[in-house]
Write a structure and sequence with these properties.
Length: 345
């Protein structure tokens, strides 16, 4: 039998543009996670800079957090030192503006297409990319990366979205974790990365499991108490209702483990057949594993990947998706003259 794996969710609210201070806090929690036996530590979205695009130092903080990949390299060094896999939330990276920046049409707030003007840094046009990475234990290698594609409406004037026209964003990858494979073999656990508002789009999850993802990690910066004025007329708990429901739904409909780490709270690990997992040492009831709203805490969850095999054996979601007669095949990224689903080399 493949071993169970422990996942540490590190939930905290970063200070605005305090890159080094936020890193020191993250490092301290990662060390605590490693000492607690965690195999994977996950941080929230925007954990180095916070999301404060109107702050006069925001672009400078993004540039600091991504300069020469210095903070990413420090996380890689931690992964080697502590022998722990790390998904360091997201890092806002500043890059020279690409050919497409400011020219590609992007959805505007009213749903129509609009054009994004490039930001500038030191007089030069730039683009800011919201990036997530998987850093492998022991080696510190980058097993996978992802640029956020579905930007939340207030992000669109400031960030450059991942563009499916230029590259395939939803790609699964092998991790150092192992699971039981065919005929008693051991095979790598495959993972995928999504970010925050991607939760609202099941197509990204479908693309990842079509590429073999067993586990999907979702760093987030979602404020549960920031309720839209119109929505509040219906319910003051609308954000809470969304986050209580969506992770379990995505887990069940994809027979995958969903690992959600949110700066604003309600971080959780969800599995099909089981729902939300409890932290290690607490009893399972399918719901109480959801972490607090706007609290700072770290919890460790133990994931049994055998549950995914049992769920797939029961639901046969992946089997149906792999069949030629699957009704929704047109929704997947395809390549080649026959339109076959593109497989990882």
């Amino acid at each position: 039998m493949a071993p169970n794996y422990k996942i540490a969710l590190i939930q905290f609210q970063p200070k605005d543009v305090a890159v080094e201070e936020n890193f020191q806090k993250a490092e301290s929690y990662i060390r605590k996670a490693a000492s607690g036996g965690a195999d994977l530590a996950v941080l929230p979205e925007y954990h180095l800079t916070a999301w404060c695009p109107e702050h006069p130092s925001f672009v400078a903080a993004c540039a600091e957090s991504s300069a020469d990949n210095s903070y990413l390299a420090r996380y890689q060094a931690l992964a080697r030192e502590l022998n722990i896999n790390i998904v360091p939330g997201t890092i806002c990276e500043v890059h020279p503006a690409s050919f497409f920046q400011g020219k590609e049409e992007q959805p505007s707030d009213d749903g129509d297409n609009g054009k994004q003007e490039p930001a500038t840094w030191k007089g030069q046009p730039i683009e800011i990319r919201n990036m997530a990475y998987w850093i492998s234990a022991s080696t510190g290698d980058l097993a996978g990366s992802y640029q956020k594609m579905n930007l939340w409406h207030p992000e669109r004037p400031h960030l450059t979205a991942g563009d499916i026209k230029r590259h395939r964003p939803h790609r699964a990858f092998n991790t150092p974790l192992m699971k039981l494979g065919p005929n008693g073999t051991q095979v790598p656990v495959r993972a995928g990365l999504l970010i925050c508002w991607d939760l609202a789009f099941p197509e990204g999850f479908r693309a990842l499991i079509a590429d073999g993802a067993d586990m999907i990690i979702v760093p987030s910066y979602w404020w549960v108490t920031a309720v839209d004025e119109n929505s509040s007329k219906v319910s003051r708990d609308d954000e809470k209702i969304f986050l209580e429901s969506v992770c379990v739904t995505r887990a069940c409909e994809n027979t995958a483990a969903i690992v959600y780490c949110n700066a604003g709270g309600m971080s959780q690990v969800a599995l099909p057949l089981k729902g939300v997992l409890p932290p290690v040492g607490k009893e399972w009831d399918g719901r109480k594993g959801i972490m607090g709203v706007e609290t700072e805490e770290m919890q460790i969850f133990e994931v049994d990947f055998e549950v995914l095999r049992v769920a797939e054996q029961d639901y046969k979601v992946r089997m149906d998706m792999g069949g030629k007669g699957w009704h929704y095949g047109y929704t997947l990224w395809r390549d080649g003259p026959e339109g076959e689903v593109k497989k990882e080399e």
